[in-house]
Amino acid sequence: MQSAPIPVHVAIVMDGNGRWATQHGKGRLAGHDAGMKAMKEIVKRSDQLGVKYLTVYAFSTENWKRSAEEVSGIFNLVVKYVNSELEEIYQNNVIVNVLGDYTALPARSVKALDKALARTQTNTGMHFNIALNYGSRAEILTAAKKLAAAAAEGTLGKPLEEVTTEDFSGLLLTAGMPDPDLVIRTSGEKRLSNYLLWQSAYSEFVFTDVLWPDFSPEEYERCIEEYQARSRRFGGR
Ligand code: FPP
Questions:
Q1: How far apart are CA 117 and CA 10, in angstroms?
Q2: In CA terms, which of 4, 65, 123, 136 is 20 to 30 Å from 101?
Q3: CB of residue 79 inside a 6 A radius of ligand 1
């Protein structure tokens, strides 16, 4: 690893579970199960590397269009993950957070997530954000509506003309968090897919052909090195 700074916030689109399953002659859920195992290792390595915020795209608002079997399989994995990993996550001082309306998930998954949030909320280490039932346009629209409502009620605390982009960031699900320095998408797809649209305005993007279940801590470090080799100018010189 080079001496250039480790990204403070890494956001990942964990793509390619289905293709991995097909390649291995397995069903899609076996792909997601393998994807969950990869995710566990990336959480651990992120913490070891000193990443302060890790955000993973686990389920988008568009993913409801998948078969009922696949959708409920992914939600069952959330329960399985919490049951098997929560204690270790807690011991490692990780703070779990969910981006998205997870209350729309089945009761067992909601309960497991509530447990993870409650157990880790007093931790002080790495923030692990799970984007679940998340969609960025809806997130931005909700923030805009909140702003409009506050303006109409006269509770903005300042004239509307003086509202800044920083103020607006504070109305998003990522309020209080730094924007992602690095966005990684696996499986060769090169899209953002309604993920952190506002927050990734100045992020570096690293795309890898590796399918998510095969995304190892070594490949992760390679992506971080690719990020470190770039110079970020934030629109300046
Ligand atoms: C993308 O692969 C993956 C998903 C939509 C789900 C990601 C879920 C996990 C990694 C499971 C664990 C998550 C938690 C929070 C426990 P794809 O199905 O789109 O793959 P394809 O493009 O090859 O079909």
A1: 20
A2: 123
A3: no
| Structural domain count, the chain | 1
187: domain CATH number is 3.40.1180.10
Q: Which domain holds residue 28?
A: 9-135+177-228
SS3 per-residue string spanning 176-191: CCCCCCEEEECCCCCC
CA of 126 to the centre of ligand 1 (A): 22
Ligand 1 pocket: which of 14, 42, 86, 133 to mutate (most atoms within 8 A of CB): 14
* Three-state SS at 96: strand
The yes-or-no verdict on residue 3 having pLDDT over 70 is no
Q: Is 94 helix (H, G, I), strand (E, B) or coil?
A: coil
The DSSP letter of residue 57 is: E
Euclidean distance between the first and the last CA atom of the chain, given in angstroms as a whole number: 26
For residue 67, tell me if it sits in a domain: yes
Does the model's pTM come out above 0.85? yes
Q: What is the pLDDT of residues 9-51, one digit of tens each?
A: 999 999 999 999 999 999 999 999 999 999 999 999 999 999 9
